[in-house]
Amino acid sequence: MMKSALPMLLLSLLSLLLLAPSTSDARTWLVRQDGSGDCTTIQACVTLAQARDSVLVFPGTYQEHIIVGAPILLVGESGSSATIIDGTNTGRCILLDEIASPGVVVKGFTIRNGELMDYPGTFETANGAGIFSRGSVGIVAECVLEYIAGMSIGCDETSNMTIENNLMQENYSTYVEPPYPVCGGGVITLSSNTFIQENTFINNMDEDVVIQACSPQVIRNRFLGTPYSGGIIGAGTAYIAENLFTNCHRAVSLWGNTEFTRNTVVNNRGTGVSVAAAYVPVISNNIITGNLTGISCSYGTPSMYCNDVWNNTKNYGCVEPSADSHLDPQFCDAAGGDFHLNCTSPCANYSGCGQVGAFGVACGSTAVEETTWGRVKSMFR
């Protein structure tokens, strides 16, 4: 599976489409609670907004349940620290409802206290208590999602969403009667067109990412600790690359033919990577160290090569492959949470494998920075 360049471009392209509309009728709607704008509630301005309009929300706490049905730009004017959407534990915070291309952008909010109590319910009624994408195209970026029960973000099978540079923290499980759990974690997706990248997950009570029978891309995220559960459960053919997993109860459970490559899985309290059932995922170029068990594959037969599996309490819960190494990866400052590599690390350019792990070289001998001839000449003017 090839890593796509689309997610890195999508935010810029979609924002340009929305900010530079093709008609002169597009406008920016201002939401101010003091009455000095166009609306005092977010929903009122969202309802007024047409395709390619912008809704700019000024600082405040908005106790709302918002439905967005048009391709608009919805943005917190002063960022997530100042602009809060509070679901008051009485339902979902934001529903993205069948929004077609060029899509919706939700950016710069703290979204909290969303709660769904439908169990077992359907995928839509039981997931995405912060934001749910129902058949929509768009981006969720630079938001904080916290204190949410029912998984923070949900994407159904017809969605095409990029979830980028968000913080998802302190999301929790609750119970309905009879006592069934309503999970509280990060992102759950049924869509292969979901890109989950450069987010941070910390202290959620359930899985940070749940992949159900699809093939999304999960790239360059930081899974920094889930006290009771895990970082990723992948029940599809996802591409999972360049992520950090540390301090999780269990880091990764693969329930499909996933490609798991160039990740750093370090100092987790349980298993680093677990392969379940009769699947054949590819596990390559990862650093897996300091876990209770490095790789457990008693129920599957993964293809494993070019990993550095070192200093776990038990390196393998399966047959040890001949194409893995067992060397100190030489992190720059593992105690301080810096898992970049020393220039002398065997993982910096492992023979026949290239770089191993999520991070490149950042310490050791003096680094050589690429420059241009013009820049060199300017130093002597």
Please explain how this structure is put together.
The protein has 381 residues and is mainly beta. The radius of gyration is 22 Å and the shape is elongated. Mean pLDDT is 90; it is low at 1-10 and 16-22. The chain has four helices and 39 strands.
User: What is the overall shape?
Assistant: elongated
Largest sheet: 12 strands, parallel
**Number of helical segments?**
4
Give the uncertain stretches in residue-range form.
1-10, 16-22
Helix content: under 10%
Structural class: mainly beta
As a percent range, the share of strand residues is 35-45%
What is the average of the pLDDT values?
Answer: 90
The whole-angstrom Rg is 22 Å
Distance between the termini: 49 Å
The strand order across the widest sheet is 1-2-5-8-11-14-19-22-25-28-31-34
Q: How many distinct beta strands?
A: 39
Features:
381 residues, mainly beta, 11-stranded parallel beta sheet, 4 helices, elongated, disordered N terminus
What is the structure about, briefly put?
With 381 residues, the protein is mainly beta.
How is the topology of this model organized?
Blueprint lengths: L5 H14 L8 E4 L10 H7 L5 E4 L2 E3 L3 E3 L4 E4 L6 E4 L7 E4 L6 E4 L2 E3 L10 H4 L4 E4 L2 E5 L2 E3 L6 E3 L4 E5 L2 E3 L4 E3 L3 E3 L4 E3 L5 E3 L2 E3 L6 E4 L4 E3 L2 E2 L6 E6 L3 E3 L2 E3 L3 E5 L4 E3 L2 E3 L4 E5 L6 E3 L2 E3 L3 E4 L6 E3 L2 E3 L3 E3 L14 E3 L4 E5 L18 E3 L9 H6 L3
Parallel strand pairs: 1-2, 2-5, 3-6, 4-7, 5-8, 6-9, 7-10, 8-11, 9-12, 10-13, 11-14, 12-15, 13-18, 14-19, 15-20, 18-21, 19-22, 20-23, 21-24, 22-25, 23-26, 24-27, 25-28, 26-29, 27-30, 28-31, 29-32, 30-33, 31-34, 32-35, 33-36, 38-39
Antiparallel strand pairs: 16-17, 37-38
